[in-house]
Amino acid sequence: MRRLAGFLGGIGLLHVMSAVPVHAEVALSGTFTVAHACPAYQSIRKGTNPGAVTVEPGKSYDVLAGNKPDATHYRVVVEGARPAERWVSTACGTLASGAASPQRRADKPIQSPGAAAAAAAAGDSSGARPTHVLALGWQPAFCAKHQDKNECRSLTGSNFFATHLSLHGLWPQPRGTQYCNVAADVKQFDLNHDWNSLPEPAMRADTLQRLAAVMPGVQSKLQRHEWIVHGTCFGGDADGYFNRAAGLASAVQSSKVSQLFADNAGRNVSAAAIRAAFDDAFGAGTGARVTVSCNGRGDNRKITEIVLNLAGDVAGSAPLGDLMRAAQALPAGCPGGLIAPAP
Question: Are the C-beta atoms of residues 64 and 40 closer than 8 Å to each other?
Answer without folding.
Answer: no
